[in-house]
Amino acid sequence: MANSTSGDSVVDRIVRLISAFPQDVADLRLSELAERAGLPLTTAHRLVGQLAGHGLLETAPGGIVRPGLRLWELVNRASPALALRQAAMPFMEDIQQVLNQNVNLAVLDGWEALFVERLSRRGSVANRAQVAGRMPIHISSAGLALMAHQNRTLQHEYLAQFQDPYGKLVADDVRTLLADTSRQGFAQLKGVVDPDTWGIAVPVLNRRQRAVASLGVVVPLREMRLQALVPALQTAARGIARGLAEA
Predict the structure, then answer these.
(1) Which sequence spans correspond to the domains of the chain?
(2) pTM above the 0.85 mark?
(3) How far is residue 78's CA from residue 65's CA, in Å, rounded to a whole number?
(4) d(CA 14, CA 41)
(5) For a Cys staple, 109 with which of 24, 32, 114, 151, CB 3.0–4.6 Å?
(6) Contact 146, 155 (CB under 8 A)
(7) For residue 224, how far is the Cα from the chain centroid?
(8) Domain pair 10-74 / 78-246, same fold
(9) Which residues of the chain have pLDDT under 50?
(10) pLDDT digit string (tens) for 54-110?
């Protein structure tokens, strides 16, 4: 695979190009896409043309570029996230019907929680978690529920590199949050992302008692009912785990 003068391969450049689309933005001008990907405009133009020929990107008048349907098709074909979503959806729908609030499903990807599904409806509280969106572990109940139920080696690696860009937390603070989450069996964060909401999440555990996903809700502070929420989430998480095991 040919390399550029900077040493990156064609695959590296393609990944940078496709990854340059920001969350909730489907259309970018070619010039902006090239800038975000750190590529010369001529290189971006050539790669976009090749990817569009395979349906992975689409082009429109005015120099507009957007992800193609072929990309969506390939990502969703036999994806582990698809099996997880299929197992989780009935339980998520039940919880949403009862709470009338946001319900989310996340997996661990690096040092972030990656949200693979979210249910919400009009009138529910603000929820920063978006499908295919990410949040740092330490500011999301989903992330804490996931990391608190990983092996110690991974937890040590995470804490060793931990750095809060805002300087509000240090590794020992996060270590305490993870220990509390592990002991309680659920994670809770009050007003961290939004001052008026409370995030609650429980792990979906495999046979080795490691978290393969987390199931969470975001509710108004005034409606916080841990005694009712946590058992319902834990029951649903066990149901999702059974569905995955049988898939």
Answers:
(1) 10-74, 78-246
(2) no
(3) 27
(4) 13
(5) 114
(6) no
(7) 24
(8) no
(9) 1-3
(10) 999 999 999 999 999 888 888 777 677 888 999 999 999 999 888 777 899 999 999
Cα–Cα distance measured from residue 35 to residue 63, given in angstroms and rounded to the nearest whole number? 14
In degrees, rounded to 5, the angle at the alpha carbon of residue 170 between the alpha carbons of residues 167 and 176 is 140
Q: Which residues of 120-145 are buried (b: 16+ CB within 10 A; e: fewer)?
A: beeebbebebeeebbbebbbbbbbbb
At the topology level of CATH, where does 78-246 sit?
Beta-Lactamase (3.30.450)
In CATH, 10-74 is 1.10.3720.10: no
